[in-house]
Amino acid sequence: MTSTMVSVVLWVTSGVIALVFMEFWAEFLHRRVWHGPLWPIHRSHHEPRTGRFEFNDILSASHAPVAAGLILYGCLGAPSAFRDLAYGWGLGMTTFGLLYLTFHDGLMHGRLPVQGLRRFAYFRLLCDAHQIHHDRNGGPYGFFYVPPKLRAYLARCRDAAHQDRITLSAS
Fold first, then answer.
1. Which of 44, 67, 129, 163 has minimal CB crowding within 10 Å?
2. Residue 78: helix, strand or coil by DSSP?
3. Are 23 and 30 a contacting pair, CB within 8 Å?
4. Measured between alpha carbons, how far is 30 from 80 in angstroms, rounded to an integer?
5. Would you say 130 and 118 are in contact if contact means Cβ atoms under 8 Å apart?
6. pLDDT reported for residue 162
7. Cβ count near 21 (within 10 Å)
């Protein structure tokens, strides 16, 4: 394998690992830090927004400098496996950030014109799970992973709502 191929394998591998890791990291931060000591900042996300931005956006953007630094090091650092891993990790963090921006800020909270994504069942599931978080001001705290018990609960709710619609249309 050439050194370029090794680099690409390291970028892709570390990028995918970082992308998956970021879901667990975000869940931990959200549960333990944002709904803990940083609640005075995060609270703005659980209240009606007045204007385009909310104070909580600071928390969402806080990982961008780290990701940018890793990517820059991956571009400018001395050739090494560590440089390639840093580059891939930065790409994985950036990918997570873009997905979060699109689905959380855009789809869930209507801050981007991506509402057409609701036609996909998985994205409706994410919206429903996130709505439960806002309604209860508690779990789930992750974003792209919906625990099986919550999936089952949401399915029962959808079935009950569907049954109510059938009953209403029959009367």
1. 163
2. coil
3. no
4. 34
5. no
6. 56
7. 15
Residue ranges of the chain with per-residue pLDDT less than 70: 162-171
Return the pLDDT at 155. Answer: 87
CA distance 125 to 61: 25
Residue 141: how many other CB atoms lie within 10 Å: 15
Which 3-state string (H, E, C) describes the chain?
CCHHHHHHHHHHHHHHHHHHHHHHHHHHHHHHHHCCCCHHHHHHHHCCCCCCCCCCHHHHHCCHHHHHHHHHHHHHCCCCHHHHHHHHHHHHHHHHHHHHHHHHHHHHCCCCCCHHHHHCHHHHHHHHHHHHHHHHCCCCCCCCCCCHHHHHHHHHHHHHHHHHHHHHHHC
pTM higher than the cut 0.85 = yes
Dist CA 92 CA 20 (whole Å): 8
pLDDT of residue 138: 83
Neighbours of 89 (CB within 10 A): 25
